[in-house]
Amino acid sequence: MTEEEARRWLKDHFTVSRETEEKLETFIAFLKREAESQNLIAASTLAHIWDRHIVDSAQLLRFCPEGPQNWIDLGSGAGFPGLVVALLGPHRVTLVESRGRRIDYLQRAVALLDLESRVTIAGMPLERVETAPYSVISARAFAPLDRLFDLAARFSTNKTLWLLPKGRNAAKEWEGVQPVWRGEFRIESSVTDAEAGILVGHLTGKTEKHTAAAAKRHQRR
Ligand SMILES: C[S@@+](CC[C@H](N)C(=O)[O-])C[C@H]1O[C@@H](n2cnc3c(N)ncnc32)[C@H](O)[C@@H]1O
What we know:
By secondary structure, the protein is of the alpha/beta class. The protein has helices spanning 3-13, 18-34, 49-58, 82-88, 100-112, 145-152, 170-177, 208-220, and strands at 70-74, 92-96, 119-122, 136-139, 161-165, 181-189, 197-206.
């Protein structure tokens, strides 16, 4: 969609107050300035931030239950989708990011947008983040699904909603992990790219076959 259509889409789907609109503009201006001195988003998307980043992030909120969620966003990078979700909804959001300059950027963005009371930055590799249950887990362009589940299943309960924009291979990726992982996922199409899929659902555990094989390996040790 064009940038104008993307702005309209946002207003049609969410209650965007004047203050939130101003904050989104402030965030985009800040991102553009920062992108001059560090690699934050693909250069080809700089002229399409509303479509490729703001709406692409915001659309995840369509699948989220009402009310404030305890949300963790893995590999937030320039703040997508985590910061957009925090700007548009009442959620408490933890942004996980391991790269120093991006952590510094995220800290300044959160202060600029006055989000300190609801946004926490876990500035470290995900592997070092303290285990805790979250009600929503999101990750865009973070890792292939098998690695993502391996790294992040410890933040999930049977009730946790996973929101994973996965591009054009969403169905294949979900099929690919099924020998190991059990869950109930559906694929929603992305409003910013009709061919891209978003995996939406719950992870319920590892398959019995996999659990039995792991137990056997453990016994042999
Ligand atoms: C391709 S970028 C995507 C950024 C953002 N989610 C987006 O879609 O624009 C992946 C991000 O994950 C971060 N990352 C990669 N491995 C990580 C890890 N193990 N723990 C935390 N962050 C990690 C990288 O530093 C990078 O900022």
